[in-house]
Specification:
The chain is built from 3 helices and 5 strands, in the order H-E-E-E-H-E-E-H. With 118 residues, the chain is an alpha+beta fold. It has one domain. The chain has a 5-stranded antiparallel sheet, with helices on one face. Helix 1 packs parallel to helix 3. The mean pLDDT is 89.
């Protein structure tokens, strides 16, 4: 069973259909029990990948060195995109899962742009 709720999965699939391609043009994986929440691969050129990841940080390192470590952890969301907005591989920090899901549409546009100029 995927870690993501069905409504979030539907939003991701809808974003794939809004671009210049359809969802059938992608290999789509929603792993369970993983830091990767979603992985999308453009099936025609598998070097084009998109991942939504959840990762844990342990607060400000400077603060940790000055005070007793309280064990507080913070969960963060990021996307890993190839192609990115201006580099071949990019990481984007997201405020929440909705921001990460909305990055799918940008990524699909970047694929189209990269294909046109290659």
């Amino acid at each position: 069973m995927p870690s993501l709720k069905n409504s979030i999965i539907s939003e991701i699939l809808d974003n794939l259909d809004r671009g210049n391609f359809c969802r059938e043009g992608f290999i789509i994986n929603f792993p369970d029990r993983s830091s990767t929440l979603a992985k999308l691969v453009f099936s025609s050129l598998t070097k084009y990948e998109f991942e939504i990841q959840e990762y844990i940080t342990h607060g400000n390192r400077f603060d940790l060195s000055l005070t007793y470590y309280s064990g507080s952890e913070e969960k963060n969301i990021r996307t890993i995109e190839s192609p990115g907005d201006y580099k071949n591989n990019e990481y984007h920090e997201c405020d929440n899962i909705s921001d990460a899901v909305n990055r799918v549409n940008n990524w699909v546009k970047n694929i189209r742009e990269d294909l046109i100029h290659s």
